[in-house]
Amino acid sequence: MSEDRRITMRLTRIENTLEEIKRSIIEPEPPDRMITVNEAAEILHCTPQRVRDSIHDGSLTATRNGRRYFLSFHDVRRRAGYQTIEKKQKI
After folding, report:
1. Would you list the domain boundaries of the chain?
2. Under 8 Å between Cβ of 34 and 74
3. Core vs surface per residue 7-29: b (16+ CB within 10 A) or e
4. Which of 89, 87, 71, 80 is nearest to 28 (CA)?
């Protein structure tokens, strides 16, 4: 892979992350839902096989339904480095 291609891919990833941060500030956090391995791989910027390997080694929690795995959207986002927005409570 050429150096220009690597730089382009990295910049695209940075732009996507910045868009996600911008969306999380403007919009309320979406409700938790179950997502597929492919969706989790897209959020984590890795292959679906790496997500399955993480499920098998216990670093990601998943629910199995038949042959398919489903993961919590919020758990995957936390693993990707996105912080959940929590309101501070007054005591």
Report:
1. 1-28, 31-81
2. no
3. eeeeeeeeeeeeeeeeebeeeee
4. 87
Token pair for 25: 């500030």
Binning pLDDT at 50, 70 and 90, where does residue 79 land?
confident
- The Cα–Cα gap between 90 and 67 comes to 46
Partners of 72 in the β-ladder: 34
Task: Catalogue the long-range contacts made by 84-87 (C-beta closer than 8 Å, 24 or more residues apart).
Answer: 84/29, 85/24, 85/29
Threshold 0.70, pTM exceeds? no
Please say whether the beta carbons of 41 and 51 come within 8 A.
yes
